[in-house]
Amino acid sequence: MINITLPDGSVRQYDKGISSMQIAISISEGLARNVLAAEVDGQVWDASRPIEQDAKIKLLTWNDTLGKNTFWHSSAHLMAEALEALYPGTKFGIGPPLKEQPGFYYDVDFGDRDFSSDDFKQIEDKVLELAKAKSEYIRKPVSKANAIEYFTEKGDEYKLDLIKDLPDGSITFYTQGNFTDLCRGPHIPNTGFIKAVKLTSVAGAYWRGDETRKQLTRIYAVTFPKQSELTDYLQLIEEAKKRDHRKLGKELELFAFSEKVGMGLPLWLPKGAALRERLVRFMQTAQVKAGYEQVITPHIGHKNLYVTSGHYEKYGKDSFQPIQTPQEGEEFFLKPMNCPHHCEIYKTKPRSYKDLPVRYAEFGTVYRYEQSGELHGLTRVRGFTQDDAHLFCRPDQVKDEFKKVIDLVLYVFSALGFEDYTAQISLRDPENKAKYIGSDENWALAEQSIIEAAAEKGLRTVVELGEAAFYGPKLDFMVKDALGRKWQLGTIQVDYNLPERFELEYTGSDNQKHRPVMIHRAPFGSLERFVAVLIEHCAGNFPLWLSPEQFTILPISEKYEEYAKKLSDILKDSDICGLIDFRDEKIGRKIRDAEVKKIPYMLIVGEKETAEGLVSVRKHGQGDLGSMTIEEFKQRIIKEITV
RNA sequence: GCCGACGUAGCUCAGGGGUAGAGCACUUCCUUGGUAAGGAAGAGGUCAUGGGUUCAAAUCCCAUUGUUGGCUCCA
Hints:
By secondary structure, this protein is an alpha+beta fold. It folds into five domains: about 1-60, Beta-grasp domain (Ubiquitin-like (UB roll)); about 65-240, Threonyl-tRNA Synthetase, Chain A, domain 2; about 265-295 and about 335-540, 2-Layer Sandwich (BirA Bifunctional Protein, domain 2); about 300-335, no CATH class; about 550-640, Anticodon-binding domain (Rossmann fold), CATH 3.40.50. The protein is about 35% helix and about 25% strand. It is built from 20 helices and 34 strands. α5 (about 145-155) runs antiparallel to α6 and α8 packs across α16 (about 525-540). The chain binds one RNA strand through β13, β14, α11 and α18.
């Protein structure tokens, strides 16, 4: 007998060699029907795999991330089986589940065959047909020699390339129906769990991400255990398309791009600029309260600045092109980050330990050469403005300062309606230290302070190795938007290296020179990216305090324009922004246009309102709110803005 | 940067070897109206740019440029 510990802590006894599925059956039939795999002592196993010793197990269903991953991984095998059945001779690369979104892909080599989205339907039909056969996924350990023999005979050089790097004794095959794949597993019990499938896109991807190797066809797809979940998923995709900030940005006249100005260089239109200005003012107010001082630095910097900072060495060759002065032959670069400039500000005078922390904030516009294929709307651009600040503090202040920055970031998120977030702690890849600058000791200190500060603030965190910046570890905030999509926004980074490189100092209470620690932080990340995420989060229906046009006055006819102007002036005096629709159109039309433009409040004025000194108020998306005096309306707006 | 798709009026898009089409937006006129599109007329395009094939190119070919889906990258 062996002891099986369940997640609730209860221990049950079973015969040696029992499978997770049998355990599930012993608990409840209903549970067993939903079990996709099981976590056994921290490893995900097939539900059918025999357990030979005492273990802690967790049964995985569709509700678990690991359960979903297993489901999609198994789906990838099923799609491969369908592809092989439809297009014999197809060679297979890898077919994993996706990390950030639902679904999976399989990289395949069709040889000379053309493949396009026109073939999707045929494949989906075949997948469903094979799924109905309820073929079991059968695990089989094989020797390296046998594995090589199998795929040599099959002529699949990609699998052979993978096997080459695997140690003998660790290799397993999985077979379902007529398809056998090299695979570590685990898999769902049988193909019958897969009830709905949709191929989502096709794209090229190099074998093992190496552009010198052959390009394979990557087929993206998503599967579900219920048809209704696929329907929901497709609806979500539709909704996401409607909220695309590139589409809304154009429709709402927030920003634009111009071929002549250059790719990745956004032009802020009046309404977008108004929105952005409000965000800036909001942040400035918060920062003043938090003890920051505003600074301003130039858009270019001397090459030596970046040689000192280390950025030149790291990015100089492919990212920076120098600007040369005609006479002296000096070299300048467009500012790609603000930190070196702020270090020089720190150095303008001697500092005492009593002066620290010093907090310099700047809405600094920076320019970076991003690969052309990587540009995307406002989320990835070549010129953008960071809500940047650099804190210079004593080592004993780091954790406290870091925690204050976390507070600020969370304040910003809550003010803008991002309720759901996690924090990602990005550390150095211990296997590849050459990628980073700075001493081991400083890295250890920096990593430690981030981990402790996040823990003390009770943040939900995940740790990612190898995701740190080259000069220091960071804490990135990932927010979930209204559709449940994750975005990386704010970032906080601890840096022991730049102070070293710029030889920053302060005089301690011991009258000795000491090195301050630097914290980089940007709660929005960049205004461009933040606005993009905000647009998609609220679908263009900004909170009232951010709306570029908070109201529009709609006169029923030109007879009431004088009254409309009077109202408009009253609102303007209270810093409430809006326009009057003077067009010679019927009221229904004016309302419709205002609704389409997502203007929060419509003030309708006609004979009745003019006579009684009222306004008829209509709210976007809600409809008629009835009449009130302009003063009542003003109070309503002020109340809504301050909440 | 690499691979694929795309670029037609301000916007959304149709068409397609014989010198351009719709809807919306715009302008003018009629209409002076009550909570999501009133009516009529008009104006607007070197069909991304450059080159080639052809009697003839917006259409076919090549290059460039931009957008886009991926890959790689992200200070």
